[in-house]
Amino acid sequence: MDSLVPAAELRNIGVKPVGTEAYQLADGSVRQFRFGLAEISVMGRTTAGRVLFGDDDASPILGVTALESAGFGVDPVNQILVRVQPRL
User: Fold this and answer.
1) CA separation (Å) from 33 to 5, 12, 21, 24, 38?
2) How many domains does one find in the chain?
3) Which of 2, 12, 29, 78 has CB 3.0 to 4.6 Å from 63, enough for a Cys bridge?
């Protein structure tokens, strides 16, 4: 759900941890992650949200909350991002 970025990259851009949360991983295990708040830009659209401090060698993950907040959805059939109308 939330985005994950290598911790070193977040530190480089000045994002500071503001809390810790337990997350369930795809394999069913649970792991604690520090998180911060950051501005996130996706395909020309900007939002803000929670970013997890991943291991320094982790691949970045753009979470669904950031995608939806920026006005995008996933088209699973065509495997593309699509613009969606924001809702209150």
Assistant:
1) 11, 18, 6, 10, 15
2) 1
3) 2
